[in-house]
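Pair request: fold both.
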Amino acid sequence: MLFVPAAAPQRWAKAHTRGADAIIVDLEDSTQPEAKAAARAQAREAVQTLHANGATVTVRVNNDPAHIEADLEAAVVAGLTAIVMPKVESVSELDGLSAMLDALEYENRMERYTIGVMAVIESPRALERITTYADRPRLIGLSLGSEDFALSLGRQPAPLSLGLAAQTIAYAASARGIMGIGMATGIANFTDLDAFAAEARRSHAMGLTGAMCIHPNQIAVLNQCFGVSDEAVAEARAILMAWETRLDGVVSYKGAMIDQPVVERARRLLKSAGLA
């Protein structure tokens, strides 16, 4: 998911060409308080333009009573897939957001729940409460806001400080069949791509399904690290072929015993790659 500032049309106008699975039109951290209104005025055009160009479009709003209603009024338009809700701390915030989206969907002649919500966890308190709001009906994903989470903790954003948070989010998302987005490190590094890739692979191994990024340089790395490689596809197919030769509940493959969970994992991998 690639961030682009709503107030930077030179960036969002071509964001659909960068290879990201989704674009986040940002009204929050990339915009100073005095520039919020001007950015909001451009958000609707950003959503419409990106959608017309084939992108999956989301908008990160401000979780602030002074801004959120106006942010949503600007953002909710045909072509919007989801709202990225930062700094979620409670069920009431998500329920309030959902009620506002109910009204805006009605005004825009959309079916209810057309607009999903990605809840961003950015503090230890929010992480403690994750099971209380992870089942809300609009939720399509949970995300770790690594920089702000580390700030809340008083540590640098690194695997030792963020690993448990990343894995907790991965588990909560997986249990509900929704996206688990994030990395157990900061996402500001767009020059040392080898280091960035190592952390992306670590985060994928934790169970996360993707990540947000701030620069187009990071997209190919994330697509590779969170995507399905040709080697993994070939391995999954070989496992399924071996399984078909079994005489009982297990079969040997490359010196290891293959049983039902291994086979199901191979099937899911192929399905995630659109091959089954």
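--- second member of the pair ---
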Amino acid sequence: MASFIVMGTWNTKQGELEFICDEIKKKNHRPIRLDLSTKRTHGKRNLAVDHAISVIKGRLKQILKRDHISGILSVGGGTNLFMSIKLMDHCPLFIPKIVVSSMIVNSVHSFRTYKDVIYIQSPCDFGILNPITKELLSNCVTILTSVREGFPNVVEPSIAVTGFGISDGYYEATKKFWLKRGYHLIPFHSIGENTMAMAELIQRDFFKGILDLTLHDVMDHVAKGAFGKIDKNRLFAYLSKDLPAVIAPGGLDTIAYIPGHQGNQRSLLPYKNRKIYHHDFRLGIKANMEEVVKAAKWIGNILKETDPKRAIFLIPLRGWSYPGEKGKDYYDSDLIHQFGKWIKKFIREEAVIDVDLSINDPQFGLTACKHLENLLKAQG
């Protein structure tokens, strides 16, 4: 018998939530009810919701500590979607999580999380149990109870590598290098959600070493680009453990922008005099010196706090992205020089190494791999 958390507002969706609990029982499992119902506080619903999240977060932590949870299912509208994602942020990776809502498509981008959540758009709203919602919710319970839960069990050691579309020229070389040596190479997209998941896996001792060769999400974080939903744990996770790590500023010359995207944190107007790279539906805006220095300081403060002995910085002198390669629009030797100068203020100088290659040169990937291999060998 497995235990599954059922999340929702029992004061408005009791019919659907009790139906889910019954379906879980039919499969000989145990539902654990987690009521997200709120009460208005002097008419300020947002304060009531925030208060409820805070209180229920404590209950959820108690449940996770007390019981072995095999999965979580949440059902409701927009407020429930918001609350459940906030709460699922506190649930470990690889516990199956399903959110069913009538507002997935037009709202979920506002509540971005790095957790491994399955989102299901409902064809109708909830509040009145009916044949459509019964069929949908029955299927959701089937999915939830059939998804395998548990942290991946691997025998071979693993290396994490970050990348982005404009700085992924090293991928193939790094893949061949580590596979040949019997390692798993696990890629993470430098868009915030993926790299924060990487940070959680690092905290759970999943990796032997880190190739953090693309820091694009750091630039988006400091310059309010499209893919910057990170916090300091993005780097702190491995630097605080002093894991063998090779770091490079891949994509740090570019701010991502998505025209018409509701999640944009600023308009395109301030960028009107910048060089713009058309990637696909996304635009790349050339970062200026102030933004690059700000990123260097953000990274540097984490280096200063953690004082790693087994981390090195490689600075590709011929460019940090495809549009930033020497001879192309984004190339800026002064910007590259200033970044390296600032990083040296926060880490021992010999740990910052200039490499006369582009980030996208396969040889740069091999260079990074050899440095990481040496760090691993020195670790013993």
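Observation on the second member. The domain at 158-379 is CATH 3.40.50.12030 (Rossmann fold).
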